[in-house]
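Run log, item B.
One chain of 82 residues. Sequence copied directly from the ordering sheet:
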Amino acid sequence: MYYFYIFHCNDDTLYCGSTNNTVNREIRHNAGRGARYTRIHGGGKIVYTESYPTLAEAMRREAQVKKWSRVKKKSLIKNSPM
């Protein structure tokens, strides 16, 4: 199983990514070993996930949501059951 996720950084920015292990990915982001973006913008928390059977599908969703406005991303997070 693969996941598309939204990570809420400590500086109130949002980062979109894909992974096969959300717990480990959040740990890596917070340890400064994740994406360059999250190293610059500080640690944070994964606030939204969607699961997909393949990495390609998760990455397609990531690419789609990355193009969205911050308002639209926040609405997605707000309306999720997490």
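Observations after the first pass:
- The radius of gyration is 12 Å.
- The chain has four helices and three strands.
Flagged for discussion on Thursday.
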